[in-house]
């Protein structure tokens, strides 16, 4: 009989310890270490090793076939549709709309004539049916099941013809009898996900796995779960906003950093085909501290409003509040404006917001953020028909950013007439007027003459 060994595994990062500790030494989380049993020793009857076939890089490449889900924004994020045999992990905050989106996709796929199985481990069948009724999907031939035992789920999936798509909601609720640990632990998540992915690969079924997220917004459990799947999608959005962003952070069959935009309504999620127009729909004219940034998310140009408020403060440590942008990046821009343009922002509270609940990561937003700060500080508004983009270096220089042509094309399509951009950028768009700056000092001088 194999000897039983014990180890202690952090449920947040997957780090292994020889003894229990109150705080994980790797990720510093408290009370996240759980005891797990392991069976050591070599099992009897190990099969003889066999050589695997090797192929050349020059062999013919077969394009992966795609199956459209019927939701254009989801298909865009996936890289053009579902690939048979692929494993897709989707994570997001509770109540953000993960189950609603996947049930909608399941219903549309079923209506197109493919076999779809939806396994719910968190909700009863009647709860899923109520959601389907609200979405108008009661006539869709989705095969619904509620289970949490891995063996029962695999036995169900093996019945009849292979399903074209399988949805598991969620992977943290599934458990295997072969392990003694509780559902949602590192060992259970790893084992159950591996078994489900193996089934998907062997039967050419597209497998959706819903994953819980931690307080930091990361998918719960070790990063090994993200390494096992082919595609990782994050569903983002602020509770106070109706917009939802589906972002691809890993995709073996398409581009990363692609996004899909949805609007949460009473009848479920509605696709937003032109998110730039929606993000700018409530924008007022002549407001100080408001600038339109022409950004790129994946392959999609996106125009979004950046709002800044600069307020004097007697406090020794001024506030720096950021929503939708990197706080470290804001600190860098403030330091450059102080050192290279002498604005003296160290005596002001600074509040920065990206309208609509969108999160921006690209450095091209530097110039737009700086323009919004200067506008709020000077009390002079930026032309509401102007878009801004450019990266700011520590030297105060304004540098080029990629895909300027796509940014300007989207701006012109939405009726913008001016562009504030780096001086070294030679991109030309017919019908657009340009205001080019080489440094943050030139930006201050340029905006001081605007009304």
Highlighted features:
globular; 25% helix; 3 domains; alpha/beta; 451 residues; 21 strands; Ribosomal Protein S5, domain 2; Rossmann fold; 7-stranded mixed beta sheet
CATH topology of the largest domain: Rossmann fold
Major sheet size, sense and barrel closure: 9 strands, mixed
C-alpha termini separation: 83 Å
The CATH superfamily of the largest domain is known as: P-loop containing nucleotide triphosphate hydrolases
Our estimate of the beta-strand percent is: 25-35%
Q: Specify Rg, calculated over alpha carbons.
A: 26 Å
- The tally of domains stands at 3
Number of helices: 11
Apparent shape: globular
Please identify the top-level CATH class of the largest domain: Alpha Beta
Strand order of the largest sheet: 6-5-7-8-4-9-10-11-12
Q: Which structural class is indicated by helix and strand composition?
A: alpha/beta
CATH architecture descriptor of the largest domain: 3-Layer(aba) Sandwich
């Amino acid at each position: 009989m194999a000897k039983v060994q014990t180890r202690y595994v952090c449920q947040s990062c997957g780090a292994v310890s020889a003894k229990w500790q109150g705080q994980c030494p790797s990720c510093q989380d408290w009370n996240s270490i759980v005891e797990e049993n392991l069976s050591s020793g070599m099992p009897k009857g190990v099969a003889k090793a066999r050589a695997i076939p090797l192929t050349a890089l020059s062999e013919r490449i077969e394009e992966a076939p795609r199956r459209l889900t019927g939701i254009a924004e989801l298909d865009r994020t996936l890289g053009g549709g579902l690939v048979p045999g692929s494993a897709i992990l989707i994570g997001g905050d509770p109540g953000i709309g993960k189950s609603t989106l996947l049930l909608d996709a399941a219903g549309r796929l079923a209506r197109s004539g493919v076999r779809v199985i939806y396994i719910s481990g968190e909700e009863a069948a009647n709860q899923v049916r109520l959601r389907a009724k609200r979405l108008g999907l009661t006539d869709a031939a989705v095969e619904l099941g509620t289970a949490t035992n891995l063996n029962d789920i695999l036995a169900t999936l093996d019945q009849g013809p292979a399903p074209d798509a399988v949805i598991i909601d969620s992977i943290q609720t599934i458990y295997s009898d072969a392990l003694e640990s509780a559902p949602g632990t590192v060992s259970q998540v790893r084992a159950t996900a591996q078994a489900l992915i193996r089934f998907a690969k062997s039967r050419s079924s597209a497998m959706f796995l819903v994953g819980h997220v931690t307080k930091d917004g990361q998918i719960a459990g070790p990063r090994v779960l993200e390494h096992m799947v082919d595609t990782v999608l994050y569903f983002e959005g602020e509770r106070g906003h109706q917009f939802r962003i589906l972002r691809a952070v890993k995709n073996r069959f398409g581009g990363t950093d692609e996004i899909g935009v949805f609007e949460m309504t009473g009848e479920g999620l509605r696709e937003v085909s032109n998110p730039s127009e929606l993000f700018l729909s409530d924008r007022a004219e002549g407001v100080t501290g408001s600038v339109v940034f022409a950004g790129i998310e994946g392959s999609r140009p996106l125009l979004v409003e950046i709002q800044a408020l600069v307020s004097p403060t007697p406090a020794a440590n001024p506030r720096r509040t950021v929503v939708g942008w990197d706080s470290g990046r804001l600190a860098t821009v403030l330091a450059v404006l102080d050192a290279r343009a002498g604005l003296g922002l160290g005596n002001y509270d600074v509040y920065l917001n990206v309208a609509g609940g969108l999160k921006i990561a690209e450095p091209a937003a530097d110039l737009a953020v700086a323009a919004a700060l200067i506008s709020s500080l000077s009390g002079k508004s930026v032309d509401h028909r102007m878009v801004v983009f450019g990266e700011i270096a520590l030297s105060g220089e304004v540098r080029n950013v990629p895909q300027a042509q796509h940014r300007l094309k989207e701006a012109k399509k939405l009726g913008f007439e001016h562009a504030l951009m780096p001086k070294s950028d030679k991109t030309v768009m017919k019908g657009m007027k340009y205001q080019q700056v080489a440094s943050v000092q030139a930006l201050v001088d340029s905006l001081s003459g605007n009304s």
